[in-house]
């Protein structure tokens, strides 16, 4: 989906939230990323395949491993 010169992370990548925002609705609290992921203000997500990711506040698990 991403057409950027340096491609954004895919929807199945660990850092998928780093993709660029292509649409947002601040009143409803969500943004659509160029990789097809919908992210919510509470840090929940919906992936392009319909999988829902529960809100995950605090440091990401992969950041703690480093």
Fold and architecture overview:
The protein is mainly beta and 66 residues long. The chain has one helix spanning 61-65, and strands spanning 21-25, 30-33, 38-40, 45-46, 52-53. The protein has one domain (1-57). It contains one helix and five strands. A five-stranded antiparallel beta sheet has the order 1-2-3-4-5, with no helix packed on it. It is globular and about 30 Å long.
> Major β-sheet, in short?
5 strands, antiparallel
The oligomerization state is single chain
Whole-Å distance between the termini? Answer: 30 Å
Amount of beta strand? 15-25%
- Reading side by side through the largest sheet, how are the strands ordered? 1-2-3-4-5
Helix-and-strand structural type: mainly beta
Rg over CA atoms, rounded to whole Å, is 12 Å
Structure annotation, total helices: 1
How many domains? The number is 1
**Total beta-strand segments:** 5
The residue fraction in helices comes out at: under 10%
From the spread of the alpha carbons, the general shape counts as globular
Model regions low in confidence, pLDDT < 50 over at least 5 residues? none
Return the average pLDDT rounded to an integer: 87
SSE arrangement, N to C? EEEEEH
């Amino acid at each position: 989906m991403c057409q950027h010169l340096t491609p954004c992370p895919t929807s199945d990548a660990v850092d998928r939230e780093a993709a660029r925002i292509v649409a947002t609705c601040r009143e409803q609290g969500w943004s659509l990323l160029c990789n097809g992921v919908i992210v919510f203000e509470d840090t929940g997500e919906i992936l392009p395949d319909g999988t829902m990711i529960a809100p995950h506040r605090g440091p990401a698990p992969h950041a703690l491993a480093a």
